[in-house]
Design a protein that fits this description.
2 copies of one chain form a homodimer. Helix content of chain A is 33%, strand content 15%. The first copy, chain A, contains 10 helices and 14 strands. In chain A, helix 9 links the parallel strand 13 and strand 14. Chains A and B meet through helix 3, helix 4, helix 5, helix 6 and helix 7 of A and helix 3, helix 5, helix 6, helix 7 and helix 8 of B.
Chain lengths: 377, 377
């Protein structure tokens, strides 16, 4: 639908009652930011929940009035006539607790103390997020999801939905995800966290009080993260060994010499202007902790026995952050439980980021799943 | 030879005359630290030069008197009865210019100004190092090398020897190396450099004057580097998702939760205690710049046409820093020039670090090459 813009408005819901968290702590008096697209049908059976990954929010699709370049982060996937077609489905995007994009997070005020949370914001897990999302659905009057959908960390939430609320999910679409982080994934997260925490402007997580932001740490965190989102191939194709300033070497250790350096520094600078350092710590920790097999002695098949949903898994051949092998572990564990599973391994050059991009085979696979499976129960 | 220790003594050679550098600058009045093992034969034909990688030195083999645990970094490869047998070969280890282990580097005094070099130490390239090494060999009275040998960045120096001084090298042994860095390699170097340069204790590279060391940056640099030295598989085997303190999660973003975090922090701490920040910048830049094909329009085959040596290339299956594909590029370019090339791709789980470890097939392959090829001209 060229020239068509779906205008959307962010909303917010307040929750007074305490939410128990995996850590044993609780959080109360919090807000969840969310958006909806399409119309809930009469029997409330066409709701699709979209869960977001590290650097995203409830603004999944559409644009804000008067801001034509404000497309949601999965606008190529969700909207009228798109793979998740909002003419048929009622789609909900929720911003997770601890985020810095609207829901209650570390830069907000603790209702008991009147102080900004900062480092005192409770550690939240994928399971906590799912429980918070379930409460929002309760308030919206949605008993059951036609589908829950997410990529990367969002895929972990989708998977967790099928385990925590098996009776409320008919389909789960888990894209570019993994059943847990491996040691290398945790290692990269830890580098990012150490860069932030050891930035003198972090002040133990209470930098708000000092009127500073640990930008140095955030820049490094984003640079290292960004490397893991891209494939070797796409980096070589886009940047290779190109110099930023033509052919002459500068012979400098601190100036930018190669295009890839310029690109990474730019990504780091942008990110440090808007992303909250405590949120970065919280979200990377939620990633580290996610491990449904843990309570079952590491046996993923036993862990997934609770799931009743039908599943669609998608992975990308050059994704080395969450490789196809990790998706296949989930597929195998579901098949061990005789669950219905579709699995697509897309041969795409873009690495982990492919889940946000316009690969036509990928979009078609998701479209077909929603048209042929989700739409029919 | 169990119970046998080769006692060694570091030496140093002063060079008064200026060395022209690739950058157009020169360096004069510098010292090179080196060690030798074995005996130079009468016709001076049994010399083997060992080039070092990022975190290593001239102390390649043997131990220092009274320090039984001071084995050189390649002590499993070089010594009496070892793959590079010092009963037959006269082996030389040299510490490169700009290092922090003995040769003149950023923490030494500029002879013209009387000030510590710091960030003013000239940028040095692989080619500069090779030229400095060649001058040392001149002073030692060694016209021709039986072999030049190195792993990783050391392999780049070995390759460069065959191009800069083709008539002085009979054999080149290039282990776990690459014809240049790709975009991802440069990207990881840039993350490390930014962590160091943006550490408030870096002071533009003149931290010595301030009595501080940019340890935060060095720690991050080492952590990210370390991840790239290990394979996914070996990280999962060694650490996996093991918690440091048993079974209970702490639910903390700043405390150590997983063993891999503890390991990486320890590596970072150790490194920041002894490695010089300016040296780290210089050596990673030398890696970035190395690209013999650059002067030939990117054509590696044309670049290697100058080489006259015979070659042995070794790569490791799980090395994702310098993958076997990168070694095969060198092999192909040499074969294009009808050079004699042996190539071994070792199926080893340890990633890039494998070149320093005790894989018996690897050690045997190098042993056989030295016994059957190098020893016979």
């Amino acid at each position: 639908m060229p020239g068509f813009f779906m205008l959307v408005t962010p909303q917010s819901m307040h929750f007074a009652e305490p939410l128990p968290l995996a850590s044993g702590r609780t959080i109360r008096g919090y807000d969840l930011a969310y958006e909806t697209y399409g119309t809930l049908n009469a029997d409330r059976s066409n709701a699709v929940l979209v869960c977001h990954a590290l650097n995203a929010s409830h603004h999944v699709a559409g644009v804000y009035a008067g801001q034509p370049k404000s497309e949601g982060w999965w606008d190529n996937m969700i909207g009228p006539g798109k793979p998740v077609d909002t003419r048929r489905f009622f789609v909900i995007g929720i911003n997770n607790l601890g985020s810095c994009f609207g829901s209650t997070g570390p830069m907000h005020t603790h209702p008991d103390t009147g102080e900004v949370y900062g480092a005192d914001f409770p550690v939240v897990t994928v399971e906590d997020w799912v429980n918070a999302q379930a409460r929002l659905l309760d308030r919206l009057g949605i008993p059951t999801l036609a589908a829950v959908l997410g990529g990367s960390l969002g895929g972990m939430q989708a998977l967790s939905w099928t385990l925590q609320h098996p009776e409320r999910v008919r389909h789960a679409v888990v894209v570019a995800s993994a059943p847990n982080l491996n040691a290398e994934n945790i290692a990269f997260n830890e580098v990012a966290r150490r860069a932030i925490v050891t930035d003198p402007d972090f002040h133990g997580g209470h930098f708000y009080r000092h009127g500073v932001v640990p930008k140095r740490g955030l820049r490094i965190a984003r640079m290292v993260g960004h490397i893991t989102y891209l494939s070797d191939d796409v980096m070589n194709a886009k940047f290779g060994r190109q110099l930023r300033d033509g052919l002459a070497l500068k012979y400098s250790t601190q100036d930018i010499e190669f295009q890839i350096e310029s690109y990474l520094r730019h990504q780091g600078d942008k990110f440090s202007d808007y992303f909250d350092a405590n949120t970065y710590l919280l979200i990377t920790r939620a990633l580290d902790y996610f491990d449904p097999a843990r309570a079952h002695g590491g046996d993923l098949s036993r862990a997934l026995a609770r799931a009743q949903a039908s599943f669609m898994l998608v992975s990308f051949s050059t994704d080395w952050r969450f490789s196809p092998r990790r998706s296949r572990e989930i597929v195998k564990a579901l098949l061990d439980n005789r669950r219905r599973v579709s699995y697509a391994e897309i041969d795409a050059p873009h690495g982990h980021d492919a889940f946000l991009l316009d690969d036509p085979r990928y979009l078609q696979v998701v479209r077909a799943y929603f048209e042929n499976q989700v739409a029919h129960g």
